[in-house]
Write a structure and sequence with these properties.
five-stranded parallel beta sheet; 22% strand; alpha/beta; elongated; 42% helix; 2 domains; Rossmann fold; binds calcium ion
């Protein structure tokens, strides 16, 4: 995937090399020469990954990472120059996801970035575009819009499929009936009542659940709405 990446590095030659290497891979790169600037611009740049040098003028990379972690789980790849810094990156629980020791090859950098992005966003990418969601015995094929359980194809309507896909993309997330209605409004033009959602959910359960009276997949959250079960 092509990503928005923030590179925090004060040495212009290193920053430039990293930027060129990542842009060659199709990423958009924003370079911040200090930790202060990285933190100030974090919200509006909204990077999907941060490449963070340990040694910076002003606050160092460790402190930048600590502060980022208060608001974000964005993957962080540290650049370090020395073994004792590596110990600190690995030993301290500051939320680093990976590190590279200088000097590193840009090829190595690109491959680490790719792996981190896949690890962090693989499931999200599936949920947004094509791909497949696997939940227990259920397989939801997002491209072909097919659902099967234990290899047996199930027949869902368009509305039922879209409701299931949204719920299953984020297990544990609770959706209110009005949120779910919003998701399927195009198909439900004649039936705007939120109770419609109960009917659709009941139909989905009859199709996907072994025992619809004791649903394993879609939980009712009393007084609120529905959530897909966390495994
Ligand atoms: Ca530096």
């Amino acid at each position: 995937m092509a990503a928005q990446i923030m590179v925090v590095e004060d040495e212009p030659a290193v920053a430039r090399g990293v930027q060129v290497a990542l842009e060659r891979e199709g990423h958009d790169v924003f370079v911040a020469p200090t930790g202060e600037e990285a933190l100030a611009r974090f919200a509006d740049v909204a990077p999907q990954l941060v490449v963070l040098d340990v040694r910076l003028p002003g606050i160092d990379g460790f402190e930048v990472c600590r502060r980022l972690r208060r608001e974000s789980r964005v993957p962080v790849l540290f650049l370090t120059a020395r073994a004792d810094e590596v110990d600190k990156v690995v030993g301290l629980e500051i939320g680093a996801d990976d590190y590279l020791v200088k000097p590193f090859s840009v090829r190595e950098l690109a491959s680490r970035v790719k792996a981190l992005l896949r690890r962090a966003y693989g499931e999200l990418a599936d949920a947004q575009g094509g791909g497949t969601l696997r939940r227990g015995d259920l397989v939801i094929d997002l491209e072909r819009r097919r659902v099967s359980r234990d290899g047996v194809r199930l027949s869902l309507t368009t509305t039922e499929f879209d409701l299931l896909r949204h719920l299953a993309a984020k297990p544990g997330r609770v959706y209110t009936r009005s949120q779910l209605l919003e998701l399927v409004r195009d198909y439900a033009a004649l039936e705007q009542d939120e109770r419609t959602i109960n009917v659709h959910i009941s139909h989905i359960r009859e199709k996907i659940e072994v025992n619809p009276a004791q649903p394993r997949y879609i939980r009712t959250v009393r007084g609120v709405g529905y959530a897909f079960a966390e495994d």
